[in-house]
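User: I'm writing a tutorial on reading structure tokens. Could you give me a worked example: one chain, its sequence, then its tokens, then a sentence or two explaining what the tokens reveal?
Assistant: Sure. Here is the example chain.
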Amino acid sequence: MITRKYKLGLALIGGLVGLLSVSGYAQNADWQIVAQNINPANYYGITVANGMIGLVSSPEPMKVKDVVLNGAFDTYGRGRVSNILKVFNFANMNLDVDGQRISQRNIANYRQTLDMQKAALTTTFDFSDKVSVRQTVLALRHLPFSALTQVEITAKKDCEIIPMSVLESPENLKEVKNFYSEIDRPHVTIRLLTSVAKSPTGRHTVAASTSFLFEEPHGQEPDVIHEDWDYNMHLAKFKKQLKAGQTYRFSVVGSVSSTAHTADPHNEAERLTIFAALERTQRLLSRHNAEWDKLWQSDIIIDGDPDAQRAVRQALYHLYSFAREGTAYSLSPMGLSGLGYNGHVFWDTELWMYPPLAILKPELAKSLLEYRYERMAMARQNAFSHGYTGVMFPWESDADGQEATPVWALTGPFQHHITGCVGWSFWTYYQITKDKEWLRTRGYPMLKEVADFWVSRVEKGTDGQYHINNVIGSNEWQENIDDNAFTNGMVKTVLGMATKAAQELGIAPNAQWNAIAAGIPILTFPDGTTKENRTYDGVMIKQADVNLLAYPLKIVTDEAKIRKDLAYYTPRYSPEGPAMGWSVLSTLYTRTGDPEKGYEWFVRSYKPNEVPPFGVLSETAGGTNPYFATGAGGMLQAVINGFGGVDVTDAGIGQLKSRLPKKWKSLTIKGVGIDHRTIVVK
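And here are its predicted structure tokens:
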């Protein structure tokens, strides 16, 4: 367990706001997370992302640790499977002051601040007694493939500065080619620093391009010099003499693309950079901020608990950052915060991250569903290959929707409940939106094939019941077991949803769906406690399984039965288990009338998993693979569906009677559903 020291103070940021320092990070309880006393040896970056590109912060000044591009995959690295690509780092910079290169070793007062409201990461530091530097990095929300870096350098004494825009290739890219060009017009000169390379197997071409944006009138800008270094790095730089007290400002705009997104990424990256450069900094910021203002119309406000407010808003910030409206991209467990889990898509999306997005931002949630819909052909082939009909979704899905689980992990061939989770999420979207045209073209076609898969997958026993044998449930520590509680429960649920979807459209449902659903057993111990699988004997479990039957599946609805299952399984959750398991316990304790116990598990779902200096979430307590967006989704459900009582049914979004923990004065959930309702609990 990670131990933390708490220290309360006050700071003046738009008025007096309570600040909390936790292992070196402090935050404005409203919108800002501030990292101070940064230790490069114990640093886990925070991400600015726009649903397409993710830029992960670095402890090194003016650097970005990783640049992740959504949708671009190739076979390399771990597991002999398709992994998301690490692409050109086009947001790195160098700075020389009077001939000396700034670095982590020779600066002071290093501080990084994430403004969640504007999705902007600002880094400030001092170099010697010569300059103060302020740098802000944004993944532009309105331009999916572009990022903006603003730089402000204030001279403390007369000095010469040489800022550099650096374009660097990671080791995984091959056949790197570097280009530099200038486009000269009477009103503007655009200088393009560009790199193009092949992905590890040559499957994709990747390109990135950057350009300086100067504030001086045309003709008075600094001269830009191009330097071509080793094959994997080149840069553009300029020189400026500053007087003591003078502040100099400029920006760098960059874009990245690949053949996963366009046929000609070299030209596309340059065109997108030119477009952004001629939009100029203020127009870029204005449109970016306007898009984030729209996103934050759906927000969660907790009165009385600044730490919970910060954690919940950070969770929302990351889910909003990792998803994008109007696409067919989904969410990996680590979102766009790095290469964790190879960028693959699991049940983490449908059961954990999708539900809060569906309630607060259905338009974002729709993209996650479109990802699955567009990959139905591959899921159909997967079912065929395993001797089944319908669609069988892979446990780990890549850009093509093929099974991308490393062969040594048995979860790939056997964790079949994911196909139920996909169908469940599709019906949930219809419950929330009542979009009948979407149901006709997307929802029902998916649910029908999911249901057909389960018809072919169940086995009728001599007892007349329909069994689901030889699976791995959500508790992955129990392999190749029969009649897993969560799998059986999800199948019962999704077969009923397929029937409802057909009836909603005036289509006669397959009569087998309801008959099989009614005949799938949920096993119990002699005392009535739900049994996790046919051979389960009380051993420790990795994460929630049986308890998911009460929430979100609502198969176990009797409160006494829910409490009985909680009493049995809560002590059996492994302390090393992932964050989302604790959030289920929180939701269920709250829903069964014990918000104080719910609060304990809510805090457990995020607090022990926070790592310095920003408090980003790792998957487990003491883990090192942030940002764990799955845990964020679970924690948000504990707030929205637990303390907030928000409940999704066939009638739409409703609200159960709910109670807050004593510490909270009120809970406000804004922008709920398609009618953007506000729900307040006091």
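What the tokens reveal: The chain is about 30% helix and 30% strand. The chain has a mean pLDDT of 94.
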